[in-house]
């Protein structure tokens, strides 16, 4: 009696290697700290950081950070007093408070930015933008694709 050869088992396909991907996202802190808007995906962290940097430079050049009605106290984790101290250090004056009582008195930061933007130096502008760490910046997050 002849024995039949056992059938060869099919080889399992090789498990694909995970691939890291870097996603440029715009943080939407005013919506929710965990909410982001993806912009573009890269295989290289340096390429993603470069792209995010370019987008952030565009934001700084085009936007008034206070246009949505929020002031420095909302856009800077250190608060309004720290922003006022920064302005003093930079030799800049904050806008005057409007007439009102208590919480009704406010400053028109959007109008202040529009008025002073062209009169401040690039260094002063950069220092102000750098302080606004709660602004909706583009950042890079890493994920793994399998």
Mean pLDDT: 86
Can you summarize the main beta sheet? 3 strands, antiparallel
Order of H and E elements: EEHHHHHE
Strand sequence of the main sheet, in spatial order?
2-1-3
Q: SS-based structural class?
A: alpha+beta
Estimated helix fraction: 25-40%
How many domains would you count in the coordinates?
1
Distance between the termini: 49 Å
Number of helices: 5
Range of strand content: 15-25%
Shape: rod-shaped
The low-pLDDT segments are none
Report the count of strand segments: 3
Supply Rg.
26 Å
Written overview of the protein:
This protein has helices at 45-62, 72-75, 80-90, 109-116, 122-131; strands at 19-27, 36-42, 138-145. The protein is an alpha+beta fold and 146 residues long. It has one domain. It has a 3-stranded antiparallel sheet, with helices on one face. Strand 1 and strand 2 form a beta hairpin. Helix 3 (80-90) runs antiparallel to helix 5. The longest helix has 18 residues, at 45-62. The radius of gyration is 26 Å and the shape is rod-shaped.
In short:
This protein has helices at 45-62, 72-75, 80-90, 109-116, 122-131, and strands at 19-27, 36-42, 138-145. With 146 residues, the chain is of the alpha+beta class.
List the SSEs and their pairings.
Elements: E1 19-27, E2 36-42, H1 45-62, H2 72-75, H3 80-90, H4 109-116, H5 122-131, E3 138-145
Antiparallel strand pairs: 1-2, 1-3
Descriptive keywords:
3 strands, alpha+beta, 146 residues, 16% strand, 35% helix, three-stranded antiparallel sheet
């Amino acid at each position: 009696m002849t024995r039949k050869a056992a059938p060869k088992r099919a080889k399992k396909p090789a498990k694909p290697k995970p691939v890291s991907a870097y996603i440029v996202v715009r943080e939407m802190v005013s919506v929710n700290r965990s909410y982001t808007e993806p912009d573009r995906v890269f295989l290289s962290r340096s390429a993603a950081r470069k792209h995010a940097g370019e987008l952030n430079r565009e934001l700084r050049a085009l936007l008034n950070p206070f246009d949505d009605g929020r002031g420095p106290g909302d856009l800077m984790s250190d608060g309004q007093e720290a922003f006022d101290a920064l302005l003093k250090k930079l030799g800049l004056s904050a806008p005057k408070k409007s007439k009102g009582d208590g919480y009704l008195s406010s400053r028109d930061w959007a109008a202040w930015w529009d008025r002073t933007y062209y009169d401040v130096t690039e260094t002063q502008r950069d220092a102000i933008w750098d302080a606004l760490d709660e602004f909706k910046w583009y950042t890079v997050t890493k994920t793994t694709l399998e």
